[in-house]
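Recap from last week: sequence in, structure out.
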Amino acid sequence: MIQLRSIISVADNSGAKVIGVIRVLKGHKGKYGEVGDIVVGSVKEAEPRTKSGIKKKDIVRALIIRQRKPVRRKDGSYVRFDDNAVVILDGKEPKATRIFGPVAREVKEKGFNTIASMAEELV
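Predicted structure tokens:
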């Protein structure tokens, strides 16, 4: 459950390391975001001298790919991760070329096939 002012790590090589959530787009009544939802955030930490040009204080859109709160699936099982993580978006495609760590299957179900195919592991 990601909400306003949540601090989330970035799981790609776009240059951003940590973002703070400013707004949850859609989600549960516009308050809480889950896996597969898009959030708007401000970059809190970034790597210096990156090719993508993302730097501190930039406003970016990001897709939630992992969350600590358990997500219930249609078959009755639950999946949860050790951390909250996002991928920086450029439109509907990822801005980065690599994604680190596992990605929930719900991301592919919501139409983000490019991100699902770039992931190391689909859980």
